[in-house]
Amino acid sequence: MNTNTGKGTLGRIVLLAMLLLSLTRAASAQSAAVSASANQPAQVEVAVGPASGISIGPNLQVPDLTKRENFSAAMQIVILLTVLSLAPAILIMMTSFTRIVIVLSLLRQALGTQQLPPNQVLIGLSLFMTFLVMGPTWERVSKEALAPYLDGKMDQKTAMARAQTPVREFMIGQVEKGGNEKDVTLFSEFAHQPNPQKWEDVSTMALIPGFMLSELKTAFLMGFKVYLPFLIIDMVVSAVLISMGMMMLPPTLISLPFKLLLFVLVDGWHLITQSLMSSFMT
Fold first, then answer.
1. Angle at the Cα of 77 (from 76 to 80), degrees rounded to 5?
2. Range of the domain at 119
């Protein structure tokens, strides 16, 4: 038995030695081929097309940015990526989102519920309310500017000019409804456009910040009206606690259940949402 075991071990050693020898020969051959190819100068086929660019090899092509058409296409991609990154800011500045989210945030503070509802809920509700309010405006933009541009019926400059018209009309309507024309006049003066006689004389760059100031003013006025009933409850609870000599008991701890009960009984979420949505309707 020992003899057979010794023969089996010897055979395994021989096979392992042959395998190592073959791997060594293959590695040496590969290194020789690499060194031979390194000694030879690399040949790269560079082909310059008339308008497409520079072709390096069969499958690699670098656009020739000295050509006007290629440079314009590259700039269009850069501008498109920039616009996409600024889309949230554009959504906030030119839509009803500002007023809605501020009023809902002030409502949460008036209730005294700290972080309830959470920010995700308030932002989500504000976004969907914004989609509903801005729906007619975005439909006009799609119909009058985006669809003809995608169909090739107008150029990019004309589409941008037509897309601004519905958005400007929305912002102008909200500024006039709030009586905040002086905010737009303020930015027009800083833009070296003094005393505009009509809205066509106001540039979009001056209209957008004026619209933002108008929305902030309107939102804080609505937030003040929301705060009043909850402030009265806090004052009543504080007076009762002081009269009872319970100075160490926080009034907000006692008033919170009463404010929640009042808000639920009057169907507060429905009233707040209805007031916000109707404030944008003309």
1. 85
2. 68-103+115-280
